[in-house]
Design goal:
580 residues; alpha+beta; four-stranded mixed sheet; 26 strands; ABC_transp_unknown; DUF7088; transmembrane helix; Motility-assoc_ABC-rel_GldG
């Protein structure tokens, strides 16, 4: 019986370890080659991804176009460097991130630098630098915030200067509503960074300035009382006073917008026809009109009755879709008037008293014109109703407070009423709109009628008809600045000398003109919204130690666990290999 010898096992060679080493090296080389190739492709085809929910790191198409087409280099100097508390550091970091994103589209034409105004080594040099910035119009801000339950205040210069050649523009970075909590106001400022910087760059660029006409001839405020309005608009446009009796229809076509600013006498039919023709053919218009006639001198001497003011514009505005009512609004959230409350020796003692006929408006719609706007100061304002107008979109812009009272004409007005505290039971009318934006193709008031003073027939729609935009505010004082009686110099628009507070009247008008005349859509950037997600401070303080321990211990535990698992896998693999 034959037996076959048992098969001898094959000798173990070093081929397996060598092939595994080669395979690892090959994998490493392929990964390295892939990374190099991916980097090369990324340099050839640039792109950025904004994965945030509110797109906070994305530029609007209008801003991108502005930056990509800049004809001259731009330098931005930001005065927000230094040691700030976290709340303020967030504004500084957001400004840097916004400028970084702008550089992506502007390239080498945009340069920015951060400067610390407090970096001087001595107190004298620091105060000298402060005075230099103040003389440039960069006023400091003492802004407070709560950190770890403590109140922190810091003097900062929340400004940037944008320079193009020899031209320079100051940009206030800390805006928002002053009545809002500090964290909310900072967030509102961050939302507006892109618009503030981009609009400053646009203003400094050479370009064709548009023409704006301020209507006169109806008892409107003089140039001194409209000084701030004219000066503000002249930064970007050419502004003229126009008399509708003297300007021709052809000359009206050269205007981009007209402003009706607090008239006190009625418009004639020919004047109204020119205004109507201008608007229905695409011209923009801003109406700041009073519905009631008020004489403060009479109110101070014992009282008066306020009756409706006939400007002969009611039918025109009614055709466009709005009506300013013959009433007056009283609001508990109001400004001040000076009243004699007694005598000190032989001199009267004058004190500021709340006056409900001077509402401080702080309620806004989310429209870009008024978004994140500070409070606006009005005087003797009336309610506005909208009426049916085909094809016209009507957007309410601002409202009085919930503690509002509406008095229909005739309205008794007596300054001595300011001595009496308001009865909240009477202020139950709720928020009332006092400003509207009207947009669309407006129908002419004179359609199917003869042109005033002629037998010329006006068609239903002019061949030159174009869509237009109108802003209507039921207060003419919104655009009128006071004049200092001692010096005769105009004070800033919206400045209340009694409360030493400047309201946002100027910014409202500027935003409205930008929206009405902006063809690039840059004003829409003001609608950008960044959601504020604050932490529960009470819960943070109570669970602070637990989360600190978790943040410190969890990474170490994960690292130790990964090491143990890797060691166990290596031991198992080599044990199975040795058993073979």
């Amino acid at each position: 019986m034959e037996t076959t010898p048992a098969a001898t096992p094959a000798p173990v060679t070093a081929a397996a370890p060598a092939s595994r080493k080669q395979r690892d090296l090959l994998r490493f080389g392929l990964v390295l080659l892939g990374l190099v190739l991916l980097n090369f492709i990324g340099q050839q085809f640039f792109f950025r991804l904004d994965l945030t929910e509110d797109k906070r790191y994305s530029m609007s198409p209008a801003t991108e176009q502005l930056l990509e087409q800049m004809p001259e280099p731009v330098t931005v100097t930001v005065y927000l460097a230094g040691d700030f508390p976290p709340a303020f550091r967030r504004l500084s970091q957001a400004t840097r991130e916004t400028l970084d994103e702008m550089q992506v589209h502007a390239g080498t034409k945009l340069r920015y630098v951060f400067v610390d105004p407090s970096a001087a080594t001595s107190e004298a040099d620091r105060q000298k630098e402060y005075q230099r910035l103040i003389q440039k119009g960069l006023n400091p801000t003492n802004l407070g915030a709560n950190e770890n339950g403590k109140r922190v205040e810091k003097i900062i210069f929340p400004w940037a200067t944008v320079t193009v050649g020899s031209r320079e523009e100051n940009v206030l970075l800390l805006r928002g509503n002053q009545a809002a909590p500090p964290d909310v106001r900072l967030n509102q400022s961050i939302e507006g960074l892109e618009y503030e910087l981009a609009s400053a760059i646009r203003r400094l660029e050479p370009g064709q300035r548009k023409l704006i006409g301020i209507v006169e001839g109806h008892g409107e405020p003089d140039n001194a009382q409209l000084y701030d309005l004219i000066a503000t608009l002249q930064r970007d446009h050419n502004v003229y006073r126009i008399d509708l009796n003297k300007v021709t229809e052809q000359n009206m076509k050269s205007l981009s917008a007209v402003i009706v600013a607090k008239p006190e006498r009625a418009y004639t039919e020919p004047e109204k026809y020119k205004l109507d023709k201008f608007i229905t053919e695409g011209g923009r218009a801003l109406f700041f009109v009073d519905a009631m006639r008020v004489n403060l001198d009479s109110a101070n001497r014992g009282g008066m009755l306020s009756f409706p003011l006939d400007l002969n514009l009611t039918d025109l505005l009614f055709t466009y879709g709005a009506r300013v009512n013959g009433d007056l609004i009283l609001d508990i959230n109001s400004g001040l008037i000076p009243l004699v409350t007694g005598m000190t020796g032989n001199k009267p003692n004058v004190e500021p008293m709340p006056w409900q006929f001077y509402p401080i408006v702080n309620g806004y719609s989310p429209h870009p014109i008024v978004r994140n706007l500070d409070a606006v100061y009005l005087k003797f304002v009336s309610t506005i109703d909208t009426v049916k107008a085909k094809g016209i979109r009507k957007t309410p812009l601002m409202y009085t407070s919930r503690y509002t009272r509406v008095l229909p004409a005739p309205v008794p007005i007596n300054l001595n009423d300011a001595r009496l505290p308001p009865d909240p039971k009477l202020y139950t009318s709720g928020p009332k709109p006092v400003g509207y934006l009207l947009e669309g193709q407006f129908r002419s008031l004179f359609a199917n009628r003869a042109k005033p003073g002629t037998t010329q027939f006006v068609p239903v729609q002019s061949p030159q008809a174009k869509p237009s935009k109108i802003m209507l505010v039921s207060d003419g004082d919104l655009v009128r600045n006071d004049v200092d009686p001692k010096t005769g110099r105009p004070v800033p628009l919206g400045f209340d000398r009694l409360a030493t507070t400047r309201f946002a009247n100027r910014e409202l008008v500027q935003n409205a003109v930008d929206y009405l005349l902006d063809e690039t859509g840059l004003i829409s950037v003001r609608g950008k919204e960044i959601t504020l997600r604050p932490l529960d401070k009470v819960k943070v303080n109570s669970e602070k130690s637990k989360w600190q321990l978790l943040n410190l211990g969890a990474p170490l535990a994960l690292l130790a666990g990964f090491g143990l698992v890797r060691a166990w896998l290596r031991k198992r693999n080599y044990a199975s290999f040795a058993s073979e």
